[in-house]
Amino acid sequence: MIFNEILISWYSVNKRDLPWRNTSEPYYIWLSEIILQQTQVKQGMPYYEAFVAEFPSVFDLANADESHVLKLWQGLGYYSRARNLHATAKYVANELNGKFPGTYKELLKLKGVGDYTASAIASICFNAPTAVVDGNVYRVLSRVFGIDTPINTTAGNKEFKALAQELIDVKNPANFNQAIMEFGATHCTPKNPDCPTCPFINKCVAYNDRKISLYPVKLKANKAKRKFFNFLVLLSSNNQTILEQRLGKGIWQNLYQFPLIETKSSMGFNDMEALLKRHDLLRNRSFELSLYNRDEVIHKLSHQHLYTKFWIVKLDSSINGIDYNDVKQYAVPILIDKFIEAFNF
């Protein structure tokens, strides 16, 4: 029995019952794939269900306000995915009359759709023999075939894509692609894979060489930069605070946050108090300052670590801001959301 036959046979017995596997409608497949990028099924499932309930068609998503989409996305991270999701929904609804492109090449032209997502949609919805390559696929192929080419290199991308394309079942590409992703997600896992019951145990190079933990190979990333964030949580005499929208390019684009002061190092109380007396928001105002979290909250992103303090600024005067009761309506980064929940305005 060849690789794709073994894999699909395994899948027929072991596949999970997931909502997007009960349809070949491109909108739902696209939605699930975008949500599950950089996200495990367990975490992404509630978001998928929420989006389907709120936006049952691509037209509903296209007609939504971006702020509503970002709020529903809150907690998933990588917010550019949500913005691209909304932009693509508008394009499909308004320019393509609600019909997704039916080929891999045309799907690639959609905002936020790369090789993996285009391959998944093309194979699952249109039966196109285009192989998917994601983290699960890298892991399975590198272990079974003993490939030590780093997966985060151009050469690695090309090699694994070519191998997956060579292995795909051209008569049943949808099942093959879903099978190899499922096998990596539930059986050939990053840690403690179920090798004793693996259908490839006799063929797996990594297992037979006792090098399971060494695959896939990945070049070390550059050390993450450290940034020091100081959020000002203003509490006014008229029960209002201030949230500002981040308009510049970046991971939190169009999300809301408390006024931010970024510093080169961790700020002590006296230095922060002196700085705030000169701040535009607080100049000539009387305020009482306190530090909410003595230990910095460390928020780790792929390329930077944010060392964060929340400073509570009580004002004797009123401000023109946001009522305490309305704070939770705004789409904010998960870092801010956790503070809002704990502080309980």
TrEMBL record:
Presence of keyword Iron: yes
Keywords, sorted A to Z: 4Fe-4S, DNA damage, DNA repair, Glycosidase, Hydrolase, Iron, Iron-sulfur, Metal-binding
Domain HhH-GPD: start-end pairs: 35-186
Catalytic activity: Hydrolyzes free adenine bases from 7,8-dihydro-8-oxoguanine:adenine mismatched double-stranded DNA, leaving an apurinic site
General function of this protein: Adenine glycosylase active on G-A mispairs. MutY also corrects error-prone DNA synthesis past GO lesions which are due to the oxidatively damaged form of guanine: 7,8-dihydro-8-oxoguanine (8-oxo-dGTP).
Name used for this protein in its record: Adenine DNA glycosylase
Chain's gene name: mutY
EC number: 3.2.2.31
Family, per entry: Belongs to the Nth/MutY family.
Secretion signal span: none
